[in-house]
Amino acid sequence: MAKKGLMYALLSALLLSTMNLFVKMLGSNIPSGEIAFFRGLFGTVAVLIVMYTQGIRFSKEDRGHLLMRGLYGGFGMVCNFIALVHLKLSDATILFQTSGIFVLIFSALFLKERVPKGAGKWLLLIFVAVMVMVNPFSFTGFTWFALVAILGAALSAAAYTTIRLISKRGKHSNFEIMAYFMITGMIAGLVTTDKLVMPQGTDWLIILAIGGISVVAQFFLTGAFVTTNAVVAQFLQYVGVFISSFYGFLFFGESLSIETVGAGIAMFVSSVMLARLKEQSGPLREGKVIEDKIK
Question: Which residues form the EamA domain (predicted)?
Answer without folding.
Answer: 4-134, 146-274
